[in-house]
Amino acid sequence: xxxxxxxxxxxxxxxxxxxxxxxxxxxxxxxxxxxxxxxxxxxxxxxxxxxxxxxxxxxxxxxxxxxxxxxxxxxxxxxxxxxxxxxxxxxxxxxxxxxxxxxxxxxxxxxxxxxxxxxxxxxxxxxxxxxxxxxxxxxxxxxxxxxxxxxxxxxxxxxxxxxxxxxxxxxxxxxxxxxxxxxxxxxxxxxxxxxxxxxxxxxxxxxxxxxxxxxxxxxxxxxxxxxxxxxxxxxxxxxxxxxxxxxxxxxxxxxxxxxxxxxxxxxxxxxxxxxxxxxxxxxxxxxxxxxxxxxxxxxxxxxxxxxxxxxxxxxxxxxxxxxxxxxxxxxxxxxxxxxxxxxxxxxxxxxxxxxxxxxxxxxxxxxxxxxxxxxxxxxxxxxxxxxxxxxxxxxxxxxxxxxxxxxxxxxxxxxxxxxxxxxxxxxxxxxxxxxxxxxxxxxxxxxxxxxxxxxxxxxxxxxx
Length: 464
Ligand code: GLY
Ligand code: MN
Ligand code: MN
Description:
Layout: H1 7-20, E1 25-30, E2 36-38, E3 41-42, H2 49-55, E4 63-67, E5 72-76, H3 81-87, H4 92-100, E6 104-107, H5 111-119, E7 124-127, H6 135-147, E8 159-162, H7 164-172, H8 176-205, H9 212-225, E9 230-231, E10 236-239, E11 260-265, E12 267-269, E13 272-273, E14 276-281, H10 288-306, H11 315-332, H12 337-340, H13 343-348, E15 384-387, E16 394-397, E17 408-411, E18 414-416, E19 431-433, E20 436-440, E21 445-447, H14 456-463
Parallel strand pairs: 1-7, 5-6, 7-8
Antiparallel strand pairs: 1-4, 2-3, 4-5, 9-12, 10-11, 11-14, 12-13, 15-16, 17-20, 18-19, 20-21
Helix pairs in contact: 5-6, 8-9, 10-11
């Protein structure tokens, strides 16, 4: 991930954060740790999303401190010629303030001596809870060092607060820079899906052995070709019955004439995810039962799209999609009305769950399942209890989030038919999901990911 080049943008975000801190507040945000893959090989480093959101800084071993008075301090790797020969150029504390638009910088080796000083005589320490292993232990030590000076009249913060509460709300509403990057990420991913569809039809036409990894290779190629740093999550490339495994990974199963292929893959670009699913016939032509179910899923997604607009609730697209899916299940005989009752019964009893068992949406942003409360904060106190008809557990329900301009969510209904008694055989092992990325606008939503078609006829056309 390259360092972002507009320090003003990050300075503005930090100023916005600082303005929300309590008087005498200090916020501490470390970047992600480097992760060992095996023996002495590391996973490619990716900064922590909160840290990157506030700095644009991509080096490991760094910590940001934001003070309520608006000052920001970064602790970063010191210059070290020997290490830089091996690992690359370091920004270093001398250059960091100008490059990152903040007030001061120190070597990360000074963290344990300087942090207690920064915390002296302050009131509230903020940090992201439950996101960085060991951070609470460090904070404990820094606070201990402050408390040790109490006889000198130095006071120690009496309160710890979860910084995610503030940062999640900021990240939930995307600014213009973020929307530009997300639009581009989705375009790249759309191109990758088209490429995989075309290769599948081409290889099958040529009689070439085709496996899931052949299509995965196309995705990776297209992502990197356009500057994406890596996939935003592990790509799912599922041939045939594998599509019914929700978290299947791209593997080595053969892809054959008559199969559907489900690809759920999106690139990450400059720290932002895209998340697209398309389901297409391996050889470019849907069979009749595949097409029947496909058109139900597509209609359910269209209903979800229509329900996605500012002022509606986060749950509205899900409810809209479920109504169409459930009606479709009754229409094609996946559900038997003599057993499950009317459409309303199916919805109320969640009798559709054998074939549709996940939610329709999640927030999308720097993280593929992005941060942000799914509960409307102004109504969080409005709790009702009900018995879940499937699990029979008592669950608490709060009003779901009111959608606002600048939020981005996925719309990803599906149908997954595992062979079972009473399930029409013509649908066995068909797994379909259609997923797009929706930016909420005043009057509806903009689908960022529609550079790859969803209509069955259009998919067949580009695969010819
Ligand atoms: N690709 C992860 C998801 O769709 O939620
Ligand atoms: Mn998704
Ligand atoms: Mn997905």
